[in-house]
């Protein structure tokens, strides 16, 4: 909820002024990838119908919230937490006091009714299953709802129902709207003409039909029916009883707005068309008059109002927010308050309120709170003339601050029906903040400029498209001086970047191709599914007709002509640009001993599934550019704290990939190398991680003194885990002499910086175990209370349970508590693990070295089989092998599944020089029936040592102790 802190950053602007800008005056620094490649921390702003409130959805570090803001005072009134595991998918104001919400909860959609009472949002689960069709503003307490049929969940019955009855799934007094339609995919309601609109899709015929009926008249008429056509046709609204407006490019080059006669099923006159651009939306008023049309011009959405008053208002907004998109996203019923959203190349998103009476705008909030004070690079429109005279739009973004005098030519994907915009672009700003200029081109084939322009790109792979890009490059280099140039892109952009370097080897010093297509014939025969006539017809709309000449424009067959270093990035599960494209290309380049680097992501398709992937790809690309072009990394003395963190974070995320991310192949040596690079820029977590390597003896020889040095450096940089690690070491007497004061100082600081389960519960352990003045049983139990984690997320709850097991084992084993004090701890443990019996014994023990063997017989369980009996064990390198204890549990009376039991387990290791370290502690719990185990893998065995295993019951009795002699 960091954004909420800035939500009242109110700035007054009078619209009669020509232009007022409130951009930051801070010096430009590299952008931290984790701040830019991220979901907005605040979104879904909605204005209440009476104009009194704005609701928002915000994503905080520890939770997700639905927020209620007063527009009278610009104050946050209430935040309702919905849990970090859950997502708000959509919501609407139903009236001045009620909200309808769709939430993703435990991998399913649930619907909530939000009731505003005394400035508080009360959430009620809606029991009815279906979806909201219309809010019916003329009937404030009712809605139109499509209720799912019990056995046909994809089909629905239509009702007008009281909102509170809907929440209770009580349709006894609801008004059912009679209609004879079946198998409707979706309903809409046109309140201007009082008509229900239905959309049906026929899978067999592959047709889409749009129908309508007047409310309460079961007389459905077809508006239009579409099959597989080579033109676009989109409903825009009713003009009169039998005429609708449609957006179409049938018989025209551009998408235009036309009349369509429902009775005759024929197109009528053109209502509006733009001479240069496709229309993408339009709206009509209740009298059938055209309200507005919209289109993209120079990379920004443009709305053209036909009412003079609205047109003047929009023009004033445009003058105030020059080179940005301005949307009215909410308007009060009395039309005195507008909620606005602004976006542009230098504006990642902000929300404002316009008050008509005062003719004043005030800022309400921003989309990305951590970017609020950042200065961004402005893009410049270039009008380019291609070799055949075709006019093109291109966008050039120059860096501010650092400038490597290097142009990154970045072709877009597609290449057909995709376009570049002048909106805020995370990738562009990332590279511009690091000193690179970026050029993007709406080459032929791009959408928004008409059918002819789009069709001119079909089959022009490696030909006219790249000539268009080269024309834009030529103009950019005429206007500005660049010393170096690289091409980079994804999908078709990866292909295009490679072809640009092949065709113009003297101009490009490097290439980055991500998720690219490099073998065009392979597009038509990659598999049986991709070799039929239907698929060939589909591909021909982009690549052109299949021909043997495709090899002449395929990088795989032109690899010997590539002279520049290249970074190839691919997803192993890519089924759009099959991984084989990149695999073949990289194989041939490596045979040629061409300078090629690769990053192949596992469990990744044609794009990354999460923001981590985007950050990692950006980081490895930045490093590749810097190394290949022999550019000097920013010096720490020229960077502020944010700038240093941004550069360091790139190295850290590369290290993370090699250290633990499942999509990147592990390489501990490379991870350590990159953590060192990040640490040189004062990266807190990387300093901590280097300390861990020295502590555990991974990659480097074990050296606790060196580890502590890095932990302390990390702590000085306010990294909570470093304080937590130092505090634990002081608490347990590891390396340091046990010191409860220093343990408390460090653990309290860790908990202050981050109130996470690990920091809370470690501090709880201290409060239960330390002598006075730090002994505090109340605080100990408060920090371990599970309710605070249940409200947050399932993952945090599970983490807390595990950590509580660690703390309880220590408390049971070593805490010098009075019987009264321990009784409270015991009761807490019984409640957490639902224990029925606390007196247990360990029986039928098997100690030794075990291997986990999967059963090959149906019905027989897989099990650990003994390799070596006893306590003298030699280290194994096999991942599936363990050492320790397998046993059974006995309780008073007869064992049964109802008797839940729990016991604490603790492992420690003592080296030949007498150093003792506690390596693990946890609680085992469950039914006493069956076999139990306390086993460890061999991964943490790095030297000859004695490993001690202790087991305690909840009555503080040590019920098992053994020492295992491990040798390398």
From TrEMBL:
Keyword Ion transport set for record: no
InterPro entries, per the entry: AB_hydrolase_fold, Peptidase_S9_cat, Sel1-like, TPR-like_helical_dom_sf
Any single biological process term in GO: proteolysis
GO molecular function: serine-type endopeptidase activity
Domain Peptidase S9 prolyl oligopeptidase catalytic: residue ranges: 424-630
Key words of the record: Hydrolase
PANTHER family per the UniProt record, alphabetical: DIPEPTIDYL PEPTIDASE FAMILY MEMBER 6 (PTHR42776:SF27), SERINE PEPTIDASE S9 FAMILY MEMBER (PTHR42776)
Designated name of the protein: Alpha/beta fold hydrolase
Upper classification of the organism: Bacteria, Pseudomonadati, Pseudomonadota, Gammaproteobacteria, Oceanospirillales
């Amino acid at each position: 909820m960091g954004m909420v802190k800035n939500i009242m950053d109110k700035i007054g602007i009078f619209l009669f002024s020509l232009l007022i800008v409130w951009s930051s005056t801070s010096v430009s620094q590299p952008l931290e990838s984790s701040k830019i490649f991220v979901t907005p921390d605040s979104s879904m702003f909605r204005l209440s119908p009476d104009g009194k409130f704005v609701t928002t959805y915000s994503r905080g570090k520890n939770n997700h919230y639905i927020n209620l803001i007063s527009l009278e005072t610009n104050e946050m009134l209430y935040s309702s937490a919905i849990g970090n595991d859950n997502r708000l998918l959509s919501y609407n104001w139903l009236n001045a006091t009620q909200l309808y919400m769709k939430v993703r909860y435990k991998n399913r959609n649930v619907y909530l009714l939000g009731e505003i009472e005394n400035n508080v949002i009360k959430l009620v689960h809606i029991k009815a299953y279906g979806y909201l069709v219309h809010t019916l503003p003329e009937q404030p307490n009712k809605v139109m709802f499509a209720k799912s049929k019990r056995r046909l969940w994809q089909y629905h019955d239509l009702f007008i129902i009281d909102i509170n009855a809907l929440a209770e799934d009580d349709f006894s007094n609801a008004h059912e709207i009679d209609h004879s339609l079946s198998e409707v995919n979706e309903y809409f309601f046109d309140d201007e003409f009082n008509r229900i609109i239905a959309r049906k899709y026929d899978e067999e015929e592959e047709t889409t039909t749009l129908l309508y009926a007047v409310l309460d008249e079961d007389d459905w008429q077809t508006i239009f029916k579409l099959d597989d056509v080579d033109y676009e046709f989109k409903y825009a609204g009713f003009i009169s009883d039998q005429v609708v407006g449609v957006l179409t490019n049938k018989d025209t080059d551009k998408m235009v707005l036309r009349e369509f006669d429902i009775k005759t099923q024929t197109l009528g006159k053109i209502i509006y068309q733009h001479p240069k651009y496709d229309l993408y939306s339009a709206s009509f008023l209740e009298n059938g008059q055209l309200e507005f049309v919209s289109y993209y011009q120079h990379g920004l959405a443009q709305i053209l109002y036909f009412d003079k008053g609205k047109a003047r208002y929009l023009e004033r907004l445009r003058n105030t927010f020059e080179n940005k998109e301005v949307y009215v996203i909410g308007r009060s019923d009395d039309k005195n308050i507008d909620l606005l959203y602004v976006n542009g190349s230098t504006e990642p998103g902000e929300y404002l309120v316009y008050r008509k009476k005062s003719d004043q705008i005030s800022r309400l909030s921003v989309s990305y709170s951590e970017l609020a004070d950042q200065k961004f690079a402005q893009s410049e429109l270039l009008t380019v003339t291609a070799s055949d005279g075709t006019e093109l739009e291109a966008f050039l973004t120059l860096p501010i601050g650092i400038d490597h005098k290097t142009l990154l030519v970045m072709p877009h994907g597609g290449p057909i029906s995709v376009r570049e915009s002048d909106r805020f672009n995370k990738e562009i700003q990332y590279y511009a903040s690091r000193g690179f200029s970026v050029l993007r081109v709406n080459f032929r084939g791009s959408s928004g400029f008409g059918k002819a322009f789009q069709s001119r790109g079909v089959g022009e792979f490696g030909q006219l498209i790249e000539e268009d890009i080269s024309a834009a490059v030529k103009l950019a280099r005429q206007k500005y001086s660049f010393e170096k140039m690289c091409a980079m892109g994804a999908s078709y952009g990866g292909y295009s970047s490679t072809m640009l370097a092949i065709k113009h080897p003297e101009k490009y010093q490097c290439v980055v191709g991500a998720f690219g297509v490099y073998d065009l014939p392979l597009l038509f025969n990659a598999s049986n599914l991709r070799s039929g006539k239907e698929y060939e017809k589909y591909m021909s709309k982009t690549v052109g007709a299949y021909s043997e000449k495709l090899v002449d424009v395929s990088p795989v067959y032109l690899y010997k002509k590539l002279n520049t270093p290249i970074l190839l990035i691919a997803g192993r599960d890519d089924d759009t640009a099959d991984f084989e494209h990149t695999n073949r290309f990289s194989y041939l380049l490596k045979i040629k001993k061409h300078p090629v680097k690769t990053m192949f992501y596992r469990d990744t398709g044609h794009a990354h599934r999460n923001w981590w992937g985007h950050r990692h790809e950006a980081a490895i690309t930045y490093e590749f550019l810097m190394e290949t072009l022999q550019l000097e990394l920013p010096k720490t003395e020229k960077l502020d704290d944010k700038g240093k963190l941004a550069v360091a974070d790139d190295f850290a995320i590369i290290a993370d990939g090699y250290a633990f991310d499942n999509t990147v192949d592990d390489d501990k040596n490379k991870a350590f190398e990159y953590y060192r690079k990040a640490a040189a820029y004062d990266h807190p977590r990387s300093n901590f991680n280097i300390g861990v390597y020295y502590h555990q003896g991974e990659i480097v020889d074990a050296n606790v003194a060196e580890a502590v040095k890095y932990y302390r450096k990390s702590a000085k940089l306010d990294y909570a885990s470093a304080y937590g690690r130092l505090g634990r070491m002081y608490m347990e007497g590891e390396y340091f002499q046990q010191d409860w004061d220093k343990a408390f100082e460090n653990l309290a600081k860790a908990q202050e910086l981050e109130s996470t389960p690990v920091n809370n519960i470690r501090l709880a352990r201290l409060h239960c175990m330390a002598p006075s003045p730090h002994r505090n049983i109340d605080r100990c139990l408060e920090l371990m209370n599970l309710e605070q984690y249940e409200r947050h997320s399932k993952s945090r709850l599970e983490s807390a349970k595990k950590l509580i097991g660690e703390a309880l084992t220590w408390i049971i084993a070593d805490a010098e508590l009075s019987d009264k004090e321990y009784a409270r701890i015991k009761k807490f443990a019984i409640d957490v693990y639902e224990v029925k019996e606390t007196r247990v014994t360990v029986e039928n023990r098997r100690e030794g070295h075990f291997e986990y063997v999967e059963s090959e017989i149906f019905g027989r369980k897989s099990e650990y089989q003994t390799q070596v009996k006893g306590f003298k064990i030699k280290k194994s390198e096999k991942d599936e092998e363990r050492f320790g204890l397998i046993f059974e549990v006995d309780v008073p009376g007869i064992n049964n599944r109802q008797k839940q039991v729990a016991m604490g387990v603790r492992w420690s290791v003592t080296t030949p020089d007498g150093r003792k370290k506690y390596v693990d502690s946890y609680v085992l719990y469950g039914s006493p029936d069956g076999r139990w185990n306390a086993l460890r893998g061999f991964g943490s065995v790095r030297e000859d040592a004695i490993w001690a295993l202790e087991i305690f019951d909840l009555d503080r009795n040590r019920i098992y102790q053994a020492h295992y002699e491990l040798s390398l």
